[in-house]
Amino acid sequence: MAQTKMKAEQLAYFPNRNAIINGGMDVWQRGTATLVSPASGTFFPDRFRTHHVVGDGTFDWSQSAETPSAGFPFNYSLKIQCTHIETAVAAGEYAGVMYNMEGYDFKRFEGETATLSFWVRATKTGIYCVGVRPGGDDPSYVCEYTVNTTNTWEKKSVTITFNSGGTFLYTNGVGLRIVWSVNCGSTFQTTPNEWQAGKYFATANQVNGLDNVANAFSITGVQMELSSVATPFEFRPIATELAMCQRYYQLVVPCNLIAINTTSIAGNLITSPKMRYAPTATQPNPLYVSDVISNIYQQSSGNITVNGSTVDSMYVSYGNFTGLTAGLIHIVYTTGIPTHLSAEL
Question: 337 or 89: which carries more pLDDT confidence?
Fold first, then answer.
């Protein structure tokens, strides 16, 4: 599949060219409250997750309205704020932002040249790195880019040719991992701009972006496309962007539920759209329900058990109630307490 040479102005009109979902940071289904010292693997803006092993350094993740003033009018960015200094980055330590691309979305790039572009704003100037690798973590390809001016939005782009011969997945698992490093120890450092056997995130030139509590690192406008040049950020309707995110994570409010005993109710949840994989479910907050004679019941704490799950539905039960009448139908009393379904990569 050799690419036809086209001007950037022509490529900019191609629909669905951006393989990154929620690259404009508009969808935050899990909420926007600042994450204080979040655990590695925690999602915040949809599809983007924390990625770190740190020593004494700590940081918060927040939604920021600070966005580039030029070009596409982004509403939000993801901001990482250092809250305790990482005095020295040990060999096995690292910190950054990860995006996992599904194999179905990645397969267009295999054997082709791709450009990954993004806007960054960092307090600490110098060389930063972005690395890619398959879901099996081998091989890796690392690119460097330079933050030239402190606390100033700058658009960056890197070009990668996917002819590595590695084990890449083209179905519904992880096709490609992308990591933007804020710091990185020597264990995960390699040389830039070539495929290397192993799991790597950065080069030895990567700055320590957590060496001062004044340091922040922000990112938005992430785009990956089949091209040797970066084109303007692709606009997608918010309904489309949300639906794409809901393949991996969605909030569902149950409808009619039946009390199966005095402490539990059960029923079906329907996912829309269908999810990537049969999801898991959590109930972070207590559910309120009402029976047909208007009695109100509340869980003592959020509780859910999945008794069967497919990509488009699941049968669940909610426990931690008291005083229910078995056999009665119950409806959710408030719509602000959804069940969280996850089929994330």
Answer: 89
Average pLDDT over residues 53-81: 95
Using DSSP, state whether 108 is helix, strand or coil: helix
Amino acid (1-letter code) at residue 105: D
Bridge partners, 250 (sequence order): 341
Cβ atoms of residues 319 and 305 within 8 Å:
yes
CA–CA distance, 102 with 168 (Å, rounded to integer): 11
Please name which of 308, 257, 241 lies closest in space to residue 279, comparing C-alpha atoms.
Answer: 308
pTM score > 0.85 for this model?
Answer: yes
Residues whose CB falls within 8 Å of the CB of residue 239, separated by 6 or more in sequence, listed in order: none
User: Averaged over 52-64, what is the pLDDT?
Assistant: 97
Rounded CA-CA distance 203/189 in Å is 5
Q: List domains and CATH numbers for the chain.
A: 8-245 (2.60.120.260), 249-342 (2.60.40)
Q: 148-157: buried (b, 16+ CB within 10 Å) or exposed (e) per residue?
A: eeeeebeebe
